[in-house]
Write a structure and sequence with these properties.
The chain is mainly beta. The chain is built from one helix and ten strands, in the order αββββββββββ.
Length: 175
């Protein structure tokens, strides 16, 4: 039983830390790596401090990739001292439709992903699933609290569905 709990915790930790790498601009992870986003269309909404990427969205930073139908980036403007340049910091990121997050052998999918920088929380919803190699965990929602290294997988309460996990024990030949 200890092996199962450790493996499941490790799977969820790896899953959500992967998301952190892409979303943590200004927090110390990957801040030297540029974020590259491609989409069919981009709409800047300065009054809302947001940018919406629509259609075949493909975002990457280093080895982390996020794909979705739509991605909205909410940011806070920071004015430099008496400078013409401005910098911005990601406050919130929302991905909708066919969300897929990958890095190496890790894959996370869902209908929506929300990242809240202030709360350091990631929420993957809508038939949320995370795989690492052959290991998989799924539920309606996966919530990960980055600073606490704590995750919660919820079932769809309106249906008879349950949270599921499939853990493949490592064999001695792989060590």
């Amino acid at each position: 039983m200890l092996s199962f709990s450790f493996s499941l915790r490790g799977l969820l930790l790896t899953a959500m830390v992967t998301i952190l790498f892409l979303l943590s601009a200004g927090t110390g992870f990957c801040e030297d790596e540029p974020i590259h986003i491609e989409a069919d269309r981009m709409v800047s909404q300065e009054q809302d401090n947001s940018v919406v990427f629509i259609g075949n969205v493909d975002a990457s930073q280093g080895e982390v990739n996020i794909r979705s139908d739509e991605m909205t980036v909410y940011y806070a403007q920071k004015d430099g001292p008496k400078s013409k340049s401005q910098s911005s910091q990601v406050k919130k990121l929302i991905c909708r439709g066919n969300v897929e997050i990958t890095q190496d052998d890790w894959l996370g999918t869902g209908k929506r992903m929300d990242y809240f920088a202030k709360d350091r929380k990631v929420i993957l919803t809508g038939n949320a699933k995370a795989w690492q190699g052959q290991n998989m965990v799924s539920g309606k929602t996966i919530v990960y609290y980055l600073d606490e290294k704590r995750s919660i997988v919820e079932r769809d309460k309106s249906k008879s569905g349950r949270v599921t996990a499939t853990i493949h024990p490592e064999s001695d030949s792989k060590k």
